Every structure is written in structure tokens, then in C-alpha cells.
Amino acid sequence: MFERYTERARRVIFFARYEASQFGSHAIETEHLLIGLLREDRNLVNRFLLDEKGESIRAEIEARATLREKVPTSIDMPLSEECRRIFAYATEEAVRLNHLHIGTEHLLLGILREEKCMAAEILRGHGLRLMAIREELTRWWIGEVRTPSKKSCPKLAAYRMPTQRYELPRRCGFRFTGSKR
Length: 181
Prior knowledge:
The chain is mostly helical. It contains nine helices and two strands; from the N terminus they run H-H-H-H-H-H-H-H-H-E-E.
């Protein structure tokens, strides 16, 4: 399920699972995912919070959530329905932006798209809006992708399109000319 996720996004899920066990929850909820996002990629969320730190968000989650007896981390923990929708939204955001991998920024957008969950309510309470963050992230991605340098992305800067061509046999019923690999 998480093959397309970046290493950082996978760590967010790992941290969310750990936080769910610390809160005594038997499922990974959206607030656990938000805490995992804050733990793994502080720069992403703090970039959009004006004068606040991620600790204020964690304190708000702890105040709103019911704390129960800790659950061992060795048991399997399912995702809540809201978390499943967040992962689906994150995938849609990545596809929409033509990204091959799903990263922490896509998870943030997915959380904000799930309107009726605790994590999105907390983020909106701190002034984060879906469209504004989507536009800012798009500007950031466009700025990075336009001019790859040899230092920042040597594989992309050195990549050359193949020049050899080939043709499929005529018996296929159509002609296709493409690159030879």
C-alpha cells in the first residue's frame, strides 16, 4: 500500500502508529497522523504557521484527545476511515501534480482536504487553508523543477533522451515509432 510513499512519508506513518499507541488508541486517527507529520517534517508545517511552533499543535491535540492506557506497539493497528481518506487524498494530490511519489507535503494537503477531522480543524484553527498551501507548494515545486543544477539533481541534469528509433512489425495493425531502450 505504501510503495509510492517517500521514506519521510513512511516515517510519518510509523510515528503516527507510535503516537496512537501512546494515546491508548486501537486505531491510527488523524490527530496521530498530524503529530507524526510534526515529528518528521517540522519545516513543512512550521513554514505555514506564522509565529507558532508545532508544540502548540501537539498540546492542543493532547487537550482534545482522551488519553487511555498505553497500547503495546507490537499489535497491529488499523487506520481509521478518516486516515484512509487522507491517504487517498494525498495520492490524488500527487497524481494531480504529476508526482511519482507521495511525500509529506501531499499528506499535509490530504489532511486539509478531510474537512471533518480533528487534525484539519486544528490546522484551520491555526490559519492553514487548503488552497493557499496548495498554491504555495506548487510555486515551490515549480521553482525547484524548472532549473535542475548538477549539484541539486545530477541524474536529471545529465539525462539525455535516446536517439535510436525502432518500428514494430506491421502485422500489429498499427505503426509505432518510439525510443529504443
